[in-house]
UniProtKB/TrEMBL annotation, chain A:
It comes from Thermodesulfobium narugense. Prevents the cell division inhibition by proteins MinC and MinD at internal division sites while permitting inhibition at polar sites. This ensures cell division at the proper site by restricting the formation of a division septum at the midpoint of the long axis of the cell. Pfam families: MinE. Belongs to the MinE family. This is Cell division topological specificity factor. GO terms for biological process: cell division; regulation of division septum assembly.
UniProtKB/TrEMBL annotation, chain B:
Belongs to the ParA family. MinD subfamily. The keyword rRNA-binding does not apply. This is Septum site-determining protein MinD. ATPase required for the correct placement of the division site. Cell division inhibitors MinC and MinD act in concert to form an inhibitor capable of blocking formation of the polar Z ring septums. Rapidly oscillates between the poles of the cell to destabilize FtsZ filaments that have formed before they mature into polar Z rings. It comes from Thermodesulfobium narugense.
Length: 84, 269
């Protein structure tokens, strides 16, 4: 989703925005980590994979998400191209 | 042996003191003996909410520091004969805190033998006052409003209660505006419960009567004609172990719908 799509997402209820924002901050509150640390983890994971595989860095994503049962997961999604 | 319940929230101004007072009043109306203890040392408010501010001679600090007996510091409510208040001190004495907390624990232990319920009105925040209050509680009630700030702080408090081993904790969602929820402009109860992962004890609708009753020093729970009063009555019964249904959203009817249902009732529909 592009930035423009994100900014002008249609039909989003005000309360849904509140819910999404809360879930985001609480994920970090509960783990006592901040978005900057998440960035750092992301960069280092990509570096490690990059050592062995050729990867699509642009499309790579690493983020923390809370599941339905309120358990936090680190989701790593790195498209691989070929072995180095 | 009675039960000690701490009422807490993290964020200030969400209605902790009002909730404590009205749950105390609600339980007392059910015939239970209740002691309400204000733990907000330095910023006491339970006395004024209950209309007992002129009757306070001694406070919890006087008891802890041996200036009076516990019986002298406990004040009986004006209307409800089984409701009692132990006021907080207005003076913040910075003597040995650890020792004071120990003594406070002893007082609570003694009170639990005398009363069915000991309700502690915790101060806002997660500092010593909150820690002291939650250290001696068997159960906890977390009060929040459907606002992002209050919910975030409630989550923090729930985490701390769990760390303290208080497994029985319930949520009261205060200042709920059914109309705003309906129009999608306020977090709904399901959202809040899902985010916080906590059991619901009850919803208190936004009600201006809360302010008018507080102005008079009366408890809204004693009124059968107010929305908030009825909500606190239901919550008190649940707290006392009764199964009480959660009313549907339809309860908050606008004037138009009220007129409509009045005529429907007349027509026997």
């Amino acid at each position: 989703m592009g930035i423009l799509d994100f900014l002008f997402k249609k039909g989003d209820k005000n309360s849904s925005i509140a819910k999404e924002r809360l879930q985001f901050v609480l994920t970090f509150d509960r783990l006592s980590i901040n978005p900057a640390l998440q960035e750092k983890i992301r960069d280092e994971i990509i570096q490690v994979i990059d050592k062995y595989m050729e990867i699509d860095k642009e499309a790579a994503s690493v983020f923390v998400e809370s599941s339905e049962s309120n358990v936090s997961h680190l989701i790593v999604n790195i498209p691989l191209k070929r072995k180095r | 042996m009675g039960k000690c319940i701490v009422v807490t929230s993290g964020k200030g101004g969400v209605g902790k003191t009002t909730t404590s007072a009205n749950l105390g009043g609600g339980l007392a109306s059910l015939g239970k003996s209740v002691l309400l203890a204000d733990v907000d040392i330095g910023l006491r408010n339970l006395d004024i909410i209950m209309g007992l501010e002129k009757r306070i001679v001694y406070d919890v600090m006087d008891v802890m520091e041996g200036r009076c007996k516990i019986q002298q510091a406990i004040v009986r409510d004006k209307r409800l004969s089984t409701l009692y208040l132990l006021a907080a001190s207005q003076i913040h004495d910075k003597s040995d805190l650890a020792e004071l907390i120990d003594r406070f624990g002893e007082i609570i232990k003694g009170l639990k033998k005398e009363f069915d319920y000991v309700i502690l009105d915790s101060p806002a925040g997660i500092e010593q006052g909150f820690m002291a209050a939650s250290s001696f509680a068997d159960e906890a009630i977390v009060v929040t409003t459907p606002e992002v700030t209050a919910v975030r702080d409630a989550d923090r408090v729930i985490g701390l209660l769990e760390a303290k081993g208080i497994k029985d904790h319930y949520l009261i969602l205060n200042r709920y505006r059914y109309s705003m929820v309906k129009s999608g402009n306020m977090l709904d109860v399901e959202d809040v419960l899902h985010i916080l992962g906590i059991e619901l004890l009850g919803i208190v609708p936004e009600d201006p009567e809360i302010i008018t009753f507080a102005n008079k020093g009366e408890l809204v729970v004693t009124s059968d004609s107010t929305a908030a009063g009825k909500a606190f009555q239901r919550i008190s019964r649940r707290l006392n172990g009764e199964k009480v249904e959660f009313p549907s959203f339809e309860e908050d009817k606008g004037l138009f719908n009220k007129i409509k249902s009045f005529f429907r009732a007349r027509l026997g529909e």
